[in-house]
Amino acid sequence: MNLLIMGLPGAGKGTQAAKIVERFGVAHISTGDMFRAAMANQTEMGKLAKSYIDKGELVPDEVTNGIVKERLAQTDIAEKGFLLDGYPRTIEQAYALDQTLAELNITLDGVINIEVNPDSLLERLSGRIIHKVTGETFHKVFNPPAGDYNEDDYYQREDDKPETVKRRLDVNIAQGEPILAHYREKNLVHDIQGNQEIDSVFADVEKVISSLK
Ligand code: AP5
Ligand code: MG
């Protein structure tokens, strides 16, 4: 199964991706996670990515297309399939992905589009907390860790500051429509209502993916 998951910042792509990976065994490819890993390791690519991410801007297409192409060419992808999260994010990236998939002889099976009211996203992102050891994502109010948890075990993303979030939303709203139109033309898009409880969103996602098998 080869899938994309799309949605605005905070729509719940990463949250649903973790559940999809657990249920369907596909490889999770998140460009945001790849950039954050490179930033943590202070590689050249990480330093370059940081200069864009901290401002809420997109990393240049050449860089992003390159890391995705490299990852999709690895041997586990042909066996497990993949779920791309946060890519493509410009129409040029969508065209580059079409070309990469054609070269690798891979067919895309579906695009999960999580639709959310943008007004709910600031609250979601400002309350997001991530476990320092496992990397698991929670929310202080909507999805708190079980039991009495120690806040020191969690961190917040640098780009979740309100000023940066506003820019991220503007950038993603502007870029998103042509990409969806591109995949709607190919009849690949499945719209999911994202303003529901996390488990209800996943129930809808699960139904869609099961119908693709
Ligand atoms: P990336 O990491 O992809 O960030 P994003 O698209 O802004 O999306 P998020 O990860 O913030 O949100 P999400 O949809 O995964 O939500 P989550 O599940 O965590 O990209 C970061 C940056 O990297 C970009 O700004 C850009 O600079 C760069 N970049 C990445 N890819 C790129 C590309 N292709 N090209 C160029 N640049 C690129 O949920 C959010 C919160 O809400 C959590 O706290 C969660 O618990 C909670 N939540 C989730 N679902 C629900 C629900 N149903 N109800 C209530 N709360 C919920
Ligand atoms: Mg994410």
UniProtKB/TrEMBL annotation:
Name of the molecule in the record: Adenylate kinase
Function as written in the Swiss-Prot or TrEMBL entry: Catalyzes the reversible transfer of the terminal phosphate group between ATP and AMP. Plays an important role in cellular energy homeostasis and in adenine nucleotide metabolism.
Cytoplasm as UniProt keyword: yes
Gene that encodes the chain: adk
Stored PANTHER family: NUCLEOTIDE KINASE
InterPro entries, per database record: Adenyl_kin_sub, Adenylat/UMP-CMP_kin, Adenylat_kinase_CS, ADK_active_lid_dom_sf, P-loop_NTPase
Database matches in SUPFAM superfamilies: Microbial and mitochondrial ADK, insert 'zinc finger' domain, P-loop containing nucleoside triphosphate hydrolases
Keyword annotations of the record: ATP-binding, Cytoplasm, Kinase, Nucleotide biosynthesis, Nucleotide-binding, Transferase
Biological process, per Gene Ontology: AMP salvage
